[in-house]
Amino acid sequence: MVPMIYTLYGFAIFFFIYWSAMWLLHIIAIFYGKYKLHRKLPLPSLDEPYPGVSILKPLMGVDSNLAANLETFFTMSYPQYEILFCIEDEVDPAVTLVEELIKKYPKVSAKLFTGATIVGVNPKINNMNRAFEASIYELVLVSDSGIKMKEDTLLDMVCYMTEKTGLVHQMPFTCDRNGFAAMLEKVYFGTAQARIYLVADLFRANCHTGMSTLLRKSVLNENGGLKTFGCYLAEDFFICKYFLDRGWRTSISSQPALQNSGLCDVNNFQARLTRWAKLRVAMVPLVIIFEPLSECMVIGACAAWASSVLFQWDSVAFYLIHILFWFICDWILLTTVQNGSLPFNKFDFLVGWLFRECSGPYLFLHAIMYPEIQWRNRVFKLSWGGVAQEIKPRIKC
């Protein structure tokens, strides 16, 4: 009986300490976000020329926003850069769109690469490898198709590329769009994702997503170039790990990445979150234990139980107060990341926030139960450590 009581109290102490730590990280993220995001850095000295940048744009298919997104790369206020479009299939409709933009902006250096080079299982690496090897500048920006740039975004990223920094990435966020799915994406990227991303950047931990990443080409070439990471699906994580292991710093820029995909619905977004969870579990197995405890509803319930065991507090009142203050802090964090008025009101935010917080644990559990990863029309299986192999698609119920 006595060992059981000690075990009970041990779990209660663990949950309460973990809950306290999560609140500390939450507060840190808010203050660091106010300090780091949307800052106006001093421009580089006029005595030193701006470094050239090669932009890799892997594309597959066309959506309603693709043309507008790609055009923002032709209108950036940066003196020296090239755009290298990478399209796997020569009959992809994106080919025609790219050719039209190249003709429309003849003063911008842009090239089109069609056909993939098979260097691994990662379709994105296979699609970009030829363009990466043909790039002429030391700084290479890998930018996903759904990213929309501001005129000064590239300049902002270059300003963070100091002598000791090898990789600069943008924190994922979204453009203002209409609809519940768009609101759900903005809520997720401006709260749960932003909280972990900002804290990781402060403590120089690896929390890198590769949707908009500026890196040093020569450092990658020391290890065989981009193709070395073709065996991973989460190439962004392992590229960042590679830089950190070699003593380079990584940093987020002050401007978040503005995702503006024309394909925006709840099912696709949740499938995306599930796929990311599967990757995290394979790369960092301890995620199985700790990630669910970072969710508001889960850690709140555990801490409420712990408070009743340790302090005889009312667990229901504790849980409700926890949810209320978590909601308020998430609203503050979201407005910090947005840096302006939001396209929805507080009630809409409440609905989207509750949907995200309640569905998060379910999506993680689904990722554990069904570890195979579907990426577009391909299915992959991950080994511990993140190495992937492609398998034949199976029919899903």
UniProtKB/TrEMBL annotation:
<dbReference type="Pfam" id="PF13506">
    <property type="entry name" value="Glyco_transf_21"/>
</dbReference>
<comment type="similarity">
    <text>Belongs to the glycosyltransferase 2 family.</text>
</comment>
<dbReference type="GO" id="GO:0000139">
    <property type="term" value="C:Golgi membrane"/>
</dbReference>
<feature type="transmembrane region" description="Helical">
    <location>
        <begin position="6"/>
        <end position="32"/>
    </location>
</feature>
<keyword id="KW-0812">Transmembrane</keyword>
<dbReference type="InterPro" id="IPR025993">
    <property type="entry name" value="Ceramide_glucosylTrfase"/>
</dbReference>
<keyword id="KW-0333">Golgi apparatus</keyword>
<keyword id="KW-0472">Membrane</keyword>
<feature type="transmembrane region" description="Helical">
    <location>
        <begin position="318"/>
        <end position="337"/>
    </location>
</feature>
<dbReference type="GO" id="GO:0006629">
    <property type="term" value="P:lipid metabolic process"/>
</dbReference>
<keyword id="KW-0808">Transferase</keyword>
<dbReference type="InterPro" id="IPR029044">
    <property type="entry name" value="Nucleotide-diphossugar_trans"/>
</dbReference>
<keyword id="KW-0328">Glycosyltransferase</keyword>
<feature type="transmembrane region" description="Helical">
    <location>
        <begin position="281"/>
        <end position="306"/>
    </location>
</feature>
<comment type="pathway">
    <text>Lipid metabolism; sphingolipid metabolism.</text>
</comment>
<dbReference type="GO" id="GO:0008120">
    <property type="term" value="F:ceramide glucosyltransferase activity"/>
</dbReference>
<comment type="pathway">
    <text>Sphingolipid metabolism.</text>
</comment>
<protein>
    <recommendedName>
        <fullName>ceramide glucosyltransferase</fullName>
        <ecNumber>2.4.1.80</ecNumber>
    </recommendedName>
</protein>
<keyword id="KW-0444">Lipid biosynthesis</keyword>
<keyword id="KW-0443">Lipid metabolism</keyword>
<keyword id="KW-1133">Transmembrane helix</keyword>
